[in-house]
Amino acid sequence: MAVPGGGAAAALALTLLLLLRSCVSGATHASSALRHAVPRGDAGGGLCGQLLLPLGYPCTEHTVETDDGFLLSLQHIPHGKNGVPDNTGPPVFLQHGLFQGGDTWFINSAEQSLGYILADNGFDVWIGNVRGTRWSKGHSTFTVHDKLFWDWSWQELAEYDLLAMLSYVYTVRQSKILYVGHSQGTIMGLAAFTLPEITKMISAAALLCPISYLDHVSASFVLRAVGMHLDQMLLTMGFHQLNFRSDMGVQIVDSICDDGHVDCNDLLSSITGENCCFNGSRIDHYLEYEPHPSSTKNLHHLFQMIRKGTFARYDYGLWGNLRRYGKLSPPPFDLSSIPESLPMWMGYGGLDALADVTDVARTVKELRSTPELLYISGYGHIDFVMSVKAKDDVYVDLMQFLRLRANGSLHSSY
Ligand SMILES: *[C@@H]1O[C@H](CO)[C@@H](O)[C@H](O)[C@H]1NC(C)=O
Ligand SMILES: *[C@@H]1O[C@H](CO)[C@@H](O)[C@H](O)[C@H]1NC(C)=O
């Protein structure tokens, strides 16, 4: 694979290897939580069987195949715990963020987590899980041990995974779908909404920590990883799967945390920024499910956005771009081509070190529509899915928006 800056990356790869060797004996506190976490096995009934059914929620597992052969799992929660089965509410599709999976929406208590709350409030809930996460590890040809299984970035998650999952729900329900995304789930959404075959299935979109531009990211861990060219280094070394649960992943975290530039005493804060209302005593439970793997190519694409300030397709370098796109640089996703008639709602926070307010403002400015905005100065990146107070702070407002926009039928057009 051609990696931009490959020469420098090779030199840095050596540095990383040396750093890793020095870590082998003395592991630091920084990653000790990851190291000692006991992940759930892959067996055990999937997301429905592990989280929802034990709490008494109806939940079924579905598998959809993307046009490039990935087998994704999708969960369906048709109503709440005490709902009426034959009174199906409007379909809402939830798309998780980077290193997360569909479990994200169910990881706090049933009173606190958006997935349960939507089901209990009469919505027909569908949960997306992108390729590479624990719930979506299948492919028609490749296994997770193949390099080609990991040959994708969020561009494919938007163009293939979202298309396949939304088409499935659209076909089953014969109704337009309410879209809810968090973080990378908003990058995927905003890219996908520029494609007419996707917007025709969407009645409205609610974006938590919306991201299209990333050049104001301020998270120290991320900036350090960008600065040391971690993405190019890993590609050069042939690590195509990015899994922070693997020995390699834990060592990467140690090597970034140990060089004195990043305070990793609070690893979550150094990666996402401060979070007001994260439940620290639930960390063991979170670590049973997260972080999920992603691809190194995806990391590289995200770092391209941070370095260049663009919201564009993956940059394959001059010749690769010419071959693939017929242009020397990767074509941008044009936010102004999202239909003005697609209603949008955005929730974003003043402490978010990934979806920075400056970048959010640029996204909003480039849209033709005027999204409804909920700004919470004391909220960080993870608060929007995991805050113990998110129901009152965010979800009541979000559900109000969804209810008002829920009636786009197959036949209505905007
Ligand atoms: C935080 O998590 C613990 C452990 O699951 C739980 O007992 C407690 O109620 C949670 N706190 C809040 C405010 O939800
Ligand atoms: C949408 O339709 C449902 C029932 O189909 C109805 O109860 C609700 O009031 C409608 N909402 C709006 C905003 O028209």
Q: Can you name the CATH architecture?
A: 3-Layer(aba) Sandwich
Radius of gyration: 20 Å
- Helix proportion of residues, in percent? 25-40%
Strand content: 5-15%
As residue ranges, the low-confidence spans are: 1-6, 18-30, 409-414
- Total helices: the number is 17
Main sheet? 9 strands, mixed
Principal-axes shape call: globular
CATH topology (fold) name: Rossmann fold
- What's the number of extended β-strand segments? 11
Strand-pairing-aware structural class: alpha/beta
CATH H-tier superfamily:
Alpha/Beta hydrolase fold, catalytic domain
Number of domains: 1
The string of secondary-structure elements, in order, is HHHEEEHEEHEHHEHHEHHHEHHEHEHH
**Which distinct ligands sit in these coordinates?**
2-acetamido-2-deoxy-beta-D-glucopyranose
Active site: 183, 352, 381
Keywords: Glycoprotein, Hydrolase, Lipid degradation, Lipid metabolism, Signal
Family: Belongs to the AB hydrolase superfamily. Lipase family.
Domain Partial AB-hydrolase lipase: 54-108
Verbal overview:
This protein is of the alpha/beta class. It has one domain (6-333, 343-404): 3-Layer(aba) Sandwich (Rossmann fold), CATH 3.40.50. Helix content is 39%, strand content 13%. It has 17 helices and eleven strands. The strands form two sheets. Strands 1, 2, 3, 4, 5, 6, 7, 10 and 11 form a nine-stranded mixed beta sheet that branches. A two-stranded antiparallel ribbon has the order 8-9. Strand 10 (344-349), helix 15 and strand 11 (372-376) form a beta-alpha-beta unit. The longest helix is centred in the middle third of the chain and has 20 residues, at 154-173. Bound molecules: 2-acetamido-2-deoxy-beta-D-glucopyranose (2 copies). One 2-acetamido-2-deoxy-beta-D-glucopyranose is lined by residues 404, 406-407. Belongs to the AB hydrolase superfamily. Lipase family. Residues 1-26 form the signal peptide.
